[in-house]
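subagent[fold] <- orchestrator: predict structure for attached chain, return C-alpha cells only, no commentary.
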Amino acid sequence: MNTRLVAHSLGILLLLVAAAMTACFLGGYLLPAGDGHSAETAVGGWGLAIGLTVLAGGGLFTFGRRARADSILRKDAIGIVGLAWFVCGTFAALPYVLCEPHLPISEAFFEGVSGLTTTGATVINQLSELPKTILLWRSLTQWLGGMGILAMFVLVLSSLGASGMTIFRAETSAHGQDLSGATLRQMARWLWLFYITLTLICFLGMWSLGMTPFQAINHAMTTVATGGFSTEETSFNGFGNGLKLWTILFMFLCGISLPLYIALLRKRSWQPLKKNEEAKVYASLLSVFCVIAISKRLYSEDFASPWLDEAINTVFNVVSIMTSTGYASSDYNLWPPAAKGLLLFAMVIGGCAGSTSGGLKVSRILLFVRMLRIEVSRVYRPNQVVVLKLNGHPVPDGSRGQTFVILTAGAAIMAFSGYFMLAFEPGHSADGCLSAVISCLTNVGPAFKEFGPMENFSELTPFSKVLLPLLMIVGRLEYLAVLALFSKGLWRHY
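subagent[fold] -> orchestrator:
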C-alpha cells in the first residue's frame, strides 16, 4: 500500500474536518441566546479540538506531500475509504470530550461516528442543556457525512482523476447510467450543489412553518442527510402537522438516488425517472408500508388524539425509519407487534442506492427477488436463458454474486454482533440488543425496546459503545468494502 498517498489523503480529510469545526464554532459563537439552548461557548475546548485536528491533518499531509495521486491503486482507494471513517470519526469526537457535555472517550467516539455515518443514535441525555456549538456540530457532522466526506475530498483533490472514481463510488453509490458522460469533478460538483440547494429549501420551509432559525438549520441539515439528530429531546413529537408533512416530503425525496435528480436536471426530461425501477419500487413499498401501519394502528388502538394526527405520525415514523433518518414523532414502541415488525422490515430495506439513506438498499432487494424468481423457474425450465435486468440494462454477472454476498454477510454480522452485545449486556433484553445492532448497521439510529425513539444508548457498557460505532462504519462502508480490507489478495496484488 502507498502509505504516503493514504496519509496525504487522510491529512486533507482531517483539515476539512478542522475547517468544519471552525465554521461550527464561529457560527455557534455568533448565534444569540434563545431556543432554550445554552449560548455558552467553551473557547478553550474548541480551540484545542481544532488545534489537535489541524496538527494531525497537517502532519499527515506533510508526510505524504510527495505522493503521486495519479498512481492510486485499488488497495490504496479501499484503504482510504476504510480508514477515513474511523479516523474522521475519532477526531469528530474531540468537541464532545473537550467541551460540554465532556463525555468519556467511548461515548464521544460513539457520538462522533454516529454523526458522520448519519446513524443518529445518541448517548446524550439532556439535549436542552447542551451549548449551541455542540448541537450545531452534531448536525454538521451528519450533513457532511450524508453526502460522504470522501465526495468532498474528491472535489477538492480532483487530481485523482479516473482512479478517484473508486473512492467516489464507494461513498456515493453512484453506479449505473445516471451520470454517464460526466467527469469525476463534474459529478462531485453537481451532487454537492444539489445537496446544498435541497438543504436551503428544506431550511426555508421549516423556518416558515414554525421552527426558529436555529432549529430549522439544524433539522434541515439532518433531514437532508437522513441523519436524525435533533435539537429537541422528544425529536419531532412537539412540532405541528404542517412541519411534519414538510419533513416527510424531504425524507422521502432524500431516500431517492441523488444522481437520478442530476440526470433529470441535465436532460430536462422525466425519462430517467420513468426508466428507474428502483425509485418506483421504493415509492411503492413506502406507500404499502404506510397503509398497512395505519390500518394496524387504527384497528388495534383507541386514540386519545384525532385519528388524522395519528395517521400523520404513523406515516412520519414509517418514512423516517425506511429512509434511515431516525426522527420520531411518537413512541412507536407502543405500536402493535405487527406494526413494529413492519418498521423493522423497512429498517433493513432502507432507501435507494445513491441516496443518503442506509439499509441494504431497494435495488439489492429487487435484484435478489429477480434472481430468486429466475432460479425457481430453472427448476422446471433448466435450459432457459434469462437476462437479469435492472432499469432496462443487463446486470453484470459480478453484481449477482455481490448481492448474495452482501445479504449473507449482513445477516451473519447482525447475528454475531447481536450475540456478543447480548453477552456484554446481560441487563438488556435480547430484542433490544438485536434491534440496536440492526439499527446501527442500517444507520437508522433509534431501535426498539430500551433503545427506542424516546430513549438513548447511554446505559450501554463501554464495550457496546465501541462495538456499535464500528457497526455504523461497516454499514456506511457496506459489507463488500469491509470484507475486501481483510483480503490478503487485495494487499498483495492490487
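orchestrator: received. Logging for downstream: Residues 396-441+460-493 form one domain. Strands lie at 389-390, 393-394.
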